[in-house]
Design a protein that fits this description.
Layout: E1 9-16, H1 24-37, E2 42-46, H2 54-57, E3 68-69, E4 73-74, E5 77-79, E6 82-86, H3 101-113, E7 120-126, H4 133-141, E8 146-151, H5 155-170, E9 175-180, E10 185-186, E11 193-194, H6 201-208, E12 213-216, H7 221-228, H8 233-236, H9 241-258
Parallel strand pairs: 1-7, 1-8, 2-6, 2-7, 8-9, 9-12
Antiparallel strand pairs: 3-4, 5-6, 10-11
Helix pairs in contact: 1-9, 3-4
Length: 272
């Protein structure tokens, strides 16, 4: 039986955003698949217990459920070369999780510590938007190697991304970098690039906080349609431009974790 919990996980990385709608989960899924394509052993934990989306994005059907071992441990499901666990695999597709914060935090702890993750190079944790109970529970209970912030260039999204960065600073978790999603739209007919949500916001945010811009992703309808269909572009079109960009982000993340900022943080909650 594989080892339960995260004891054999080399890097535990939170994928976070200050607000919803910026493509955080899409980024988490494709980044995990890109790391796997680079030869890493990768797991995905869907920590958004209220709105789990990873099962659909990974093409895990509604009838697929994790095996339970010794009436306590969960065997993660495998899809496209990564292992995954989500509340969406345990509840019905249309069943809402009408839970208060402590209940959600308890569910996250169980998914984290009672899943048979085994030996992994990376376990990416797709957090819900915001800076609430789930984020604090993860930071207090798990030795995070760092966090990746996903944002769009839009000023409203950047304002909330700053809050996410400030939250990780309070709990002494390093921010490994910023991913700018929906950075530009390239017309398929003429090749003209239009910065619909603004330009350079991710780079400015990274510079403001002394971290790196891991990469920028275009506003590409194919990324959404392919990921929604359960075959994200990294596996659906491995030679395509979107897959190339995700692999570049995965390479930049590996480099960030190899640097001095990748040391295991000392988790400490600071009250102001």
């Amino acid at each position: 039986m594989a080892e339960a919990g995260i004891g054999a996980v080399r890097h535990l990385v939170a994928i976070a955003s200050g607000k919803g709608g910026v493509g955080k989960s899409t980024t988490a899924v494709n980044l995990a698949l890109a790391l796997a394509a680079l030869g890493e052993r990768v797991g995905l934990l869907d920590a958004d217990v209220w709105g789990p989306s990873l099962p659909q994005m990974l093409g895990l059907g509604a009838g697929q459920r994790p095996e339970v071992v010794e009436r306590k441990f969960l065997v993660p499901l495998r899809a496209h070369g990564v292992v995954a666990m989500s509340m969406g695999l345990l509840a019905g597709e249309r069943t809402p999780m009408v839970w208060r914060g402590p209940m959600a935090g308890s569910a996250l702890s169980q998914l984290l510590n009672q899943t048979l993750w085994g030996a992994l190079d990376y376990l990416l944790v797709d957090l819900p938007p915001g800076t609430g109970d789930i984020q604090l529970t993860l930071a207090q209970q798990a030795p995070l190697s760092g966090a990746v912030i996903v944002t769009t260039p839009q000023e409203v999204a950047l304002a909330d991304a700053r809050k996410a960065i400030e939250m990780f600073a309070k709990v002494r978790v390093p921010v490994l970098g910023v991913v700018e999603n929906m950075a530009e739209y390239v017309c398929p007919a003429c090749g003209h690039a239009e910065h619909i949500f603004g330009e350079g916001g991710g780079a400015r945010l990274a510079a403001e906080y002394g971290t790196r811009l891991l990469g920028a992703l275009p506003l590409d309808p194919a990324i959404r349609t392919e990921t929604d269909a359960g075959r994200p572009p990294v596996v659906a079109e491995p030679e395509g431009e979107a897959a190339r960009r995700y692999r570049a982000i995965a390479t930049a993340l590996r480099e960030a974790l190899a640097g001095p900022a990748a040391a295991d943080p000392e988790i400490e909650v600071v009250d102001e």
